[in-house]
Amino acid sequence: MVEKLEVLVDGGKATPGPPLGPALGPMGVNVIQVVNAINEKTKAFAGMKVPITLTVDPKTKGFEIKVGTPPTTALILKEIKIEKGSGSPKSTKVGNLSIQQALKIAEMKKDSMLGKDKRSRFREVVGTCTSMGVTVDGKEPKDVIKEMDAGGYAGVF
After folding, report:
1. How many Å apart are CA 151 and CA 154, to the nearest integer?
2. What pTM, to 2 d.p., does this model score?
3. Dihedral of the CA atoms 115, 121, 125, 126 (nearest 10)?
4. The domain containing residue 38 runs over which residues?
C-alpha cells in the first residue's frame, strides 16, 4: 500500500527532524536520501515555505516527490523583498508590486490557481495584495482591478 505524506518545508533546507523524520522513519525509507532529494528540488524556493507531496512505497522503499509552489503571499513578499505584510493594510502600505512582478507570480502559480487564463490569475495576485497592504503599479489593488474591468491593461495580456 502506497503511503502519501503532505508537508510544508523550508525551501532547500529540509531536515531529518520533524515533520519529515518522524513521519518517514516508520515507512522504512532512507530519511537522509529523501531529505537530500527534497532539498535539491526545492532549492529555487530558498527562504520560503514550500508544500511537498511525498509518495512512498514501503515494500520497494521507493519514493516520489512532488513540489508545490509556495503560497502567493510568500511569492509577493519575496518579490518586494520584505519580511511580512501590513498589520493594518488599509492604512499602512509596506511595498509596491510592479505589473511585471504580478504577472511573474501569476505564471509561477498557474498550476495551482483557480484562474483559467493569465488575466484571471493576475487578478488573483492583485487581490492578494489588498489584504497584505501592498500597492500594485503604485495604486491601490482595488483600483487596478477597476481599471482592468474598464478595459485597462489590455496590452499586458
Report:
1. 6
2. 0.71
3. -100
4. 3-67
